[in-house]
Amino acid sequence: MGRRRKSNKHLPQRVYLYHGRYWLIERSGKRLDLGTTASQMYSRLAELADNAKPLRTMSQIFDRYLNAALTHLAPRTQRDYRGYTENLRKSFGEAAPEEVTANSIYDYRAARARQSIVQANREVSCLSAIFREAIGWHAVARNPCHELKRLHEQKRTRYVTDQEYLALYNFASESRHQRVHRGGNRVPSRQVEATASATREDDRDLENGDRGVVARS
Q1: Is residue 188 within 8 Å of 171, Cβ to Cβ?
Q2: For 100-143, how does the pLDDT look when each residue is reduced to its tens digit (9 = 90+)?
Q3: CA distance 161 to 192
Q4: How far apart (Å, rounded) are the C-alpha atoms in residues 16 and 34?
Q5: Under 8 Å CB-to-CB from 92, ≥6 apart: which residues?
Q6: What secondary structure letter does DSSP report for 143?
Q7: What is the per-residue pLDDT across 60-97, written as a single tens digit (0 to 9) for each?
Q8: Contact residues for 200 (Cβ-Cβ < 8 A; gap 6+)
Q9: Average of per-residue pLDDT values in the chain
Q10: Which domains does the chain possess?
């Protein structure tokens, strides 16, 4: 039986306040930082309680990944992965982790690829990242995504529109001083930038009505 508290008796069991910071002292003696405010302390305790629960379904694994692992990624990647995870949850959420096999992932990817091969690849990559974390949580023993090869993504091309061509032509003709003065020292778009070299060589074709330049979308 532990010693009775002499102060801060309102705090949860094994939580102590030292020099303005809350700490959880485990039975082993290990200290876990819980933050500097009561709100942070209770929020962190709730996270630790959730992490201690067994992960019996993929939905629980998805939740822990979103709360624990995803926060270390870039904001844009976090937004994308949250969308991918919600799509994955619809098919795998109720399944036990060991029930998600390479075969089931293959079938999922095939169905998603009928709409978008790129999206299908991204979602499987997201699922693979989730399984890598789940291995560390001892929720699974292996990553079934490793048994699948990435689908080939064909490069898309299209013709540059007259408006894009003229925008790039005017941008190239404008002096750097003018661009800086008006606060526009950037190429209008990545797609137009990809055609810059072809644009300078094909000014004469533009005048003759030839639109034969192709840009990547």
Answers
A1: yes
A2: 999 999 999 999 999 999 999 999 999 999 999 999 888 999 99
A3: 10
A4: 10
A5: 58, 100, 104, 108, 127
A6: -
A7: 999 888 877 877 788 898 899 999 999 999 999 999 99
A8: 172
A9: 78
A10: 15-52 (no CATH), 58-147 (1.10.150.130), 157-216 (no CATH)
